[in-house]
Amino acid sequence: MPDRFPQEAVLRDGRRLMIRPFAAGDTEELYKFFRRLPSDIRRFAWDNIGDRGVVEAWGRTLDYSRVLPLLAFDGKRVVADATLHRRDNG
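-> structure tokens emitted (90 positions)
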């Protein structure tokens, strides 16, 4: 599935975002994105996204066959993230 990216998304206001899988070199921008989120939103994350080490570990342990992490970029700035998790049972 990573071969289907990058893809461009056009927002209602006309802005264009680039959507592509998270890569090891994206850790700094992803961490900055998480830091911009209000703390009352960050607290719902499964992992401690306020810990730079957690985000860096994700970059070191990428396995697209298990989890496909997607980022949306406005220029070089991460503006959204999502993950698609694969289950053994479908």
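The chain has a mean pLDDT of 93.
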